[in-house]
Amino acid sequence: VAVKRGDGWAGVYNHCDSYPTWLGRELWKHLRGTDLKLFAEELLRYDDWRNYLAGGVCPYCGGRGLSQPHSIRGEIDERIPPDYGRNSQYSNARFKSKKEMREYYRSFPRWFGREDEIESMIEEEWRMRQNIRKTGYADPECKYHKHDPLVPARITSEDPDPLFIEWVYVVDPEQRTIDILAHRSDGKTDGPMKGCPVLRDDGYWDYGHCAYRHARVAKVSTDGEEPDWRLIEDIASADTARANLHGKTTERDAGALAEALKGNQFVLTNCIVCGKEVLAEYEPAVHERCRLETIRKLGGDADAWKG
Ligand SMILES: [Zn+2]
Ligand SMILES: [Zn+2]
What we know:
alpha+beta; 8-stranded mixed sheet; globular
């Protein structure tokens, strides 16, 4: 999640579910009707979208102004407010007494003869409960998770890492829009891996064994009607149709052709834009022409998606 800065952007990282149908929708709803200048100022004080959402308070230790927690051990992974994992059927927080927890683990063959380990697990569990009671947090001393020094807005368009950063949402507080960028490969699949990617003249970052860039798929308004997140997501990730089956072939021919191509792992599917039957390597699939036309309509950078 980023904020427009000059010709580029600066922003924060998000680890999971960053595609439009999740993070795009979440961000859009979050921004609706809010002061985007204030949002931008606030966001850029953080290193991570989750840290921003938590208001900079670590859900495990209660620390403030720290980096996004990492190296989180399973014991505290679920021990976050408000229910501290008590409702999870897997968390040790569900046991009412030490006796109940002890008997539970003793009943499994793989825990036979490991009494000491069971006892130390019980001690750990009760220490965490005491921590929660006393401080409100399961791991106030950071025994089960870590923090680094906080580096605000650490991802920028000058070093965007498009191989690993698959989606970028650039908020423009002036225009009240979000530019949605997706990463795309130039098709390169071999070569020796480089220590760090090098920016080529064509806008791709060359990693040695592959090359990627961010390209705008859509520009959405934070005030208008809710965008079609599924379309935005699919239009960027759909496979390019390899064969047109309409017009020249009958349905039966198409079926037979698909059967014959099974060994090549082609699928018979429909273009997500025009609905016509196509052959592609995976679903969803789209005609090159249909993709460019749709991206243009969505306010994306169709030129960056050519080829
Ligand atoms: Zn913490
Ligand atoms: Zn089509």
